[in-house]
Amino acid sequence: MSMINLEFWYWLILAAVLFTLEIFAPGAILMWFGFGAALTGLILWLVPDLALAWQLLLFGASSLLSLLAWRQSPWFRDPPSPEPELNNRLLSQI
Questions:
Q1: pTM of the full predicted structure?
Q2: Of 13, 34, 46, 91, which cross-links 19 as Cys (Cβ 3.0–4.6 Å)?
Q3: Is 10 buried (19+), middle (13-18) or exposed (0-12) by CB count in 10 A?
Q4: When comparing pLDDT for 9 and 79, which is higher?
């Protein structure tokens, strides 16, 4: 049975690739997976004998948690408009 042995720098390269792809992709989604890969690389650097299953679980959980944290943050929401009827064609008078 062969074991797949990932080094920490694999995760850091994946994080760099995801951050680079975020520049070209709309929606600010890949950045959060980049944070998950960077965190997994950092943890693997600190704990070099971490099994692949734990690495993948850590990557998935940290990516999902960072994405959900961003979606719940006040920076994600649009600020309230001072003129809510602006450009609403249904409310415009002819």
A1: 0.73
A2: 34
A3: middle
A4: 9
pLDDT digits 0-9 by tens, 9-59:
899 999 999 999 999 987 778 999 999 999 999 999 999 999 999 999 999
Cα separation, 52 vs 62, in Å, equals 15
54 with 77: CB under 8 angstroms?
Answer: no
Orientation of helix 8-24 relative to helix 30-46, angle to 10°? 170
Residue type, 6: L
Other CB atoms within 10 Å distance of the CB of residue 23: 8
